[in-house]
Amino acid sequence: MRATLRQAARASVHLLLTAAMAFGSYLFVTVLLITATGALTGVGIWLLPETVLLVRRIAGAKRRLTATWTGREIPEAYTPLTGPVRQRVRTAVRDPGTLTDARWMAAHYAYPWLTVLMLPLWPLGLVVDGVWSGLLGRRALVLPLIVRLADIEAAWSAALLRPAPQALLTRRVEHLTTTRADAVAAHGAELRRIERDLHDGAQARLVALSMRIGLAQRAYGADPDAARRLLADAQDQAEEALTELRHVVRAIHPPILTDRGLVGAVRALAAASGLRVDVRADGLPEEVRAPAAVEAAAYFVIAEALTNAAKYSGSEEAEVLLARSRTGLSVRVRDEGGGGADESAGSGLLGMRRRVAALDGTVRVSSPVGGPTVVDVELPCVW
């Protein structure tokens, strides 16, 4: 009975807030009439974009209220109203989101009737369900109807406020354009880094190696001991150049990913991180592999997160969770450090986001001051 009362009370709050928004919309009718009159006469045409922006804010508040009840977000897909007045008016009229909001606004005026239907259910429910459920231990009959009214209202709102397919497609194209630009920028930066590493590292050592071999050839006949020392130095230079090249190759695609798979590579990474890292894999058998690009992205995300944890968190422990889902690969890295991670402070989070966004994935970082820091990554792929 207590759970039924709590759920009915929560549904009542939702319906009362919905009614309050609807009554506020009644007052907004005056603004709509003034805007319509101004648009028809041409005198107040500049009011149209401002009114559309107000309607967008009201619809946004309703989307958040509905998402709080249902637990599912309702996406927004609006064309920005920018530029001179004529362009703003044209955009406001042609934007599919304007028609969606207008349709919802018209239906919104009928929403208070759901709250009116709720009011008599409370006294009836307290009496009937108090006896039927509270005393006899049976399933409540009346109070769940209030929850049902809230569900109906939320379903209506979600259906009316959901953007048109054309608007969602436009938003998707804009998102892909942005992520593609970020991926190109990240790829260019990676190529410049590889070029710099080769030029300053392996190439410089190979030049020194060539010079030492040349000096050894010249000194071999006159001073064999000096030639042997030069050849020994050349051998050291060759080994250092090989080490530099291995670092460059690992930065492009770690060979351990190919040899041992993602779970094995992450375990090796954890063992070398300097932290006590607990690596867990859920639903990732060795015979099932994600695409190479997805594995590489997950590996670099984990490497960056563990590096940040070792440098900044102050924690000695971390946790890595790899999980296979129906639509992709989930990665979670958690440490119990001091938190307060700041993307603008050069912690590598921006590069992490770009790498994941290039694969149409998402990154969520939770790092309140005092900890813990949790990095959640979703990488879509086909298994």
Describe this structure in words.
The structure is a single chain. With 383 residues, the chain is an alpha+beta fold. It contains twelve helices and five strands. It has a five-stranded mixed beta sheet with strand order 1-2-3-5-4, with helices on one face. A hairpin with a 3-residue loop joins strand 2 and strand 3. The radius of gyration is 31 Å and the shape is elongated.
Layout: helices, strands, pairs:
Elements: H1 2-41, H2 47-70, H3 85-94, H4 96-108, H5 112-118, H6 121-135, H7 143-161, H8 165-219, H9 224-252, H10 255-271, E1 276-282, H11 292-313, E2 317-324, E3 328-335, H12 349-357, E4 362-366, E5 373-380
Parallel strand pairs: 1-2
Antiparallel strand pairs: 2-3, 3-5, 4-5
Helix pairs in contact: 1-2, 1-5, 1-7, 2-4, 2-7, 5-7, 8-9, 8-12, 10-11, 11-12
